[in-house]
């Protein structure tokens, strides 16, 4: 077994000697003061993820309503409904691309606040929509805001959090996104579709108000030469009774060693491109596990695999499992470590996808003669679609395997990939590279979502699941060979490791 990447000893790694550890009583007192301020700033930021999760599943209750709308300007065909659902990912990709510039131009906090403009505009367009173009534009704008916050929030949270709680706080963006989705599902039972869009404005406005009184990232402020403001920000985050001089000096030394702008020649330096390549591959592999198409086509998949599941129960079951799994990840990330959870997550997803593939290939058939045709013809939100009739207790397998997959994803490859993205990227390239990661992630999600039905129609429903299972094996190998263990390390220690590394591979 390879030693953890950041567990190496030697002069190259031991760049920042640690101070003598404080007494347990002092550590507890200081930790409470630190965490109160940091938790408040984190909550203000991750409200953007709440909006992201809310907007992502907005189509779930809206598409059925619009498919049966009597207004010809708002009536959706199956093709239009598919675009209404998937155009969000194109907007998110554009938001990630914009984050490559805004993250470093405006700073992390202001970029998150800026996302409120397209988000609020998008919800207003959908609330007052009188034609398909308003729905699509509103959907794309909320996707743009989601992609922008997805790139900026993890960076902001990681840069304000102390190492002891950075793992737990790094899981909060995913946790809040799940809360946002659950809130949409709950409100969808009570409110008409236009009022759902109006309700989406509330977390956006709350985020703006709270972030306006929160400090910016000390690391960003130091990179702009605003040293006094950075010291005040760090002192506020850590508490008035905390001595922040040592931590501030480490951050300041790290920032001063780096120029404000990175040239393309410098980007070819191994200590710069290696962490960027790792994060890009993690975002790509995360999507290739199949999370987006499985969530988007969940009910059609169930309809095509001989299982009886009322549509109104899907969201509650999936949401509860996702929420529980993200909570497990948040509580164990700073105890078990990142790599252990990634291994467990990939192994669970592999078992779940392989089980689904084998069940579709060898298991009982639904009433429809061809299960793939049933999936192709199933509307994403049509509750009137005929359900398959289960023939034995074996038909519980698709539901259990899907829940297992969601659990595996949400406790590892969901939140940890975002956290590692914000931890291992070099400060100079953090804004640009995080935006690039979001761009790659959502472009991959769009391609998978749009091609899923084509693959199912041509080769059968089992083929995508076998492909996803194979990707999970790649994830296991990639985690063991390339992913660093960052548990308990400061961002400066992580970056100093990549600076000191001379060998060609990462272990």
UniProtKB/TrEMBL annotation:
<keyword id="KW-1133">Transmembrane helix</keyword>
<dbReference type="InterPro" id="IPR003663">
    <property type="entry name" value="Sugar/inositol_transpt"/>
</dbReference>
<dbReference type="InterPro" id="IPR050549">
    <property type="entry name" value="MFS_Trehalose_Transporter"/>
</dbReference>
<dbReference type="InterPro" id="IPR005828">
    <property type="entry name" value="MFS_sugar_transport-like"/>
</dbReference>
<feature type="transmembrane region" description="Helical">
    <location>
        <begin position="38"/>
        <end position="63"/>
    </location>
</feature>
<dbReference type="InterPro" id="IPR020846">
    <property type="entry name" value="MFS_dom"/>
</dbReference>
<feature type="transmembrane region" description="Helical">
    <location>
        <begin position="340"/>
        <end position="362"/>
    </location>
</feature>
<keyword id="KW-0325">Glycoprotein</keyword>
<dbReference type="GO" id="GO:0022857">
    <property type="term" value="F:transmembrane transporter activity"/>
</dbReference>
<feature type="transmembrane region" description="Helical">
    <location>
        <begin position="169"/>
        <end position="187"/>
    </location>
</feature>
<feature type="transmembrane region" description="Helical">
    <location>
        <begin position="396"/>
        <end position="421"/>
    </location>
</feature>
<dbReference type="Pfam" id="PF00083">
    <property type="entry name" value="Sugar_tr"/>
</dbReference>
<protein>
    <recommendedName>
        <fullName>Solute carrier family 2, facilitated glucose transporter member 6</fullName>
    </recommendedName>
</protein>
<keyword id="KW-0472">Membrane</keyword>
<comment type="function">
    <text>Probable sugar transporter that acts as a regulator of glycolysis in macrophages. Does not transport glucose.</text>
</comment>
<feature type="transmembrane region" description="Helical">
    <location>
        <begin position="110"/>
        <end position="130"/>
    </location>
</feature>
<dbReference type="InterPro" id="IPR036259">
    <property type="entry name" value="MFS_trans_sf"/>
</dbReference>
<dbReference type="GO" id="GO:0005765">
    <property type="term" value="C:lysosomal membrane"/>
</dbReference>
<comment type="similarity">
    <text>Belongs to the major facilitator superfamily. Sugar transporter (TC 2.A.1.1) family.</text>
</comment>
<feature type="transmembrane region" description="Helical">
    <location>
        <begin position="465"/>
        <end position="483"/>
    </location>
</feature>
<dbReference type="InterPro" id="IPR005829">
    <property type="entry name" value="Sugar_transporter_CS"/>
</dbReference>
<keyword id="KW-0812">Transmembrane</keyword>
<keyword id="KW-0458">Lysosome</keyword>
<feature type="region of interest" description="Disordered">
    <location>
        <begin position="1"/>
        <end position="28"/>
    </location>
</feature>
<keyword id="KW-0813">Transport</keyword>
<feature type="transmembrane region" description="Helical">
    <location>
        <begin position="83"/>
        <end position="103"/>
    </location>
</feature>
<feature type="transmembrane region" description="Helical">
    <location>
        <begin position="433"/>
        <end position="459"/>
    </location>
</feature>
<feature type="domain" description="Major facilitator superfamily (MFS) profile">
    <location>
        <begin position="41"/>
        <end position="487"/>
    </location>
</feature>
<keyword id="KW-0762">Sugar transport</keyword>
<dbReference type="GO" id="GO:0006110">
    <property type="term" value="P:regulation of glycolytic process"/>
</dbReference>
């Amino acid at each position: 077994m390879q030693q953890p990447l950041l567990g190496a000893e030697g002069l190259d790694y031991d760049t920042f000697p640690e101070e003598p550890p404080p007494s347990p009583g002092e550590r507890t007192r200081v930790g409470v003061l630190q965490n109160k301020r940091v938790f408040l700033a984190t909550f203000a930021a991750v409200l953007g993820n709440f909006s992201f999760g809310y907007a992502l599943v907005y189509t779930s209750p809206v598409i059925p309503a619009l498919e049966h709308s009597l207004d010809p300007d708002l009536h959706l065909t199956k093709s239009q409904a598919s675009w209404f659902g998937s155009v969000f990912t194109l907007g998110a990709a554009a938001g990630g691309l914009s984050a490559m510039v805004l993250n470093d131009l405006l700073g992390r906090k202001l970029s998150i606040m800026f996302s409120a403009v397209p988000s609020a505009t998008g919800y207003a367009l959908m609330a007052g929509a009188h034609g398909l173009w308003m729905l699509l534009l509103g959907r794309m704008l909320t996707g743009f805001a989601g992609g922008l916050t997805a790139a900026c929030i993890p960076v902001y949270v990681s840069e304000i959090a102390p190492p002891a709680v950075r793992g737990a706080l790094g899981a909060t963006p995913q946790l809040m996104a799940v809360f946002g989705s659950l809130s949409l599902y709950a409100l969808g039972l009570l409110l008409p579709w236009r009022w759902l869009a109006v309700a989406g404005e509330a977390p956006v406005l709350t985020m703006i108000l709270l972030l306006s009184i929160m400090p910016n990232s000390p690391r960003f402020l130091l990179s702009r030469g605003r040293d006094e403001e950075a010291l005040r920000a760090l002192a506020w985050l850590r508490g008035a009774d905390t001595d922040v001089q040592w931590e501030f000096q480490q951050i300041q030394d790290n920032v001063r060693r780096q120029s404000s702008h990175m040239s393309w020649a410098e980007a070819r330096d191994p200590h710069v491109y290696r962490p960027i390549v790792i994060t890009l591959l993690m975002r790509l592999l995360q999507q290739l596990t199949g999370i987006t198409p499985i969530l988007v086509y969940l009910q059609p998949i169930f309809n095509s695999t001989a299982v009886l599941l009322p549509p109104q129960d899907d969201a509650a079951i999936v949401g509860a499992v996702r929420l529980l799994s993200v909570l497990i990840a948040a509580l164990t990330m700073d105890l078990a470590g990142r790599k252990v959870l990634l291994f467990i997550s990939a192994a669970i997803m592999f078992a779940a996808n392989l089980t689904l593939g084998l069940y579709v290939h060898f298991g009982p058939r639904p009433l429809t003669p061809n299960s793939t045709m049933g999936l192709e013809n199933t509307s994403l939100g049509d509750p009137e679609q005929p359900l398959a009739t289960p023939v034995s207790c074996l038909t519980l397998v698709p539901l259990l395997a899907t829940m297992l997959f969601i659990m595996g994803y949400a406790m590892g490859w969901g939140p940890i990939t975002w956290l590692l993205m914000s931890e291992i990227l070099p400060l100079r390239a953090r804004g640009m590279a995080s935006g690039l990661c979001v761009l790659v992630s959502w472009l991959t999600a769009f391609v998978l979502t749009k091609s899923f039905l084509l693959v199912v129609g041509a080769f059968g429903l089992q083929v995508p699941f076998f492909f996803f299972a194979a990707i999970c094996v790649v994830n296991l190998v990639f985690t063991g060979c390339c992913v660093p263990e960052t548990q308990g390390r400061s961002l400066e220690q992580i970056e100093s490791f990549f600076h000191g590394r001379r060998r060609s591979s990462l272990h």
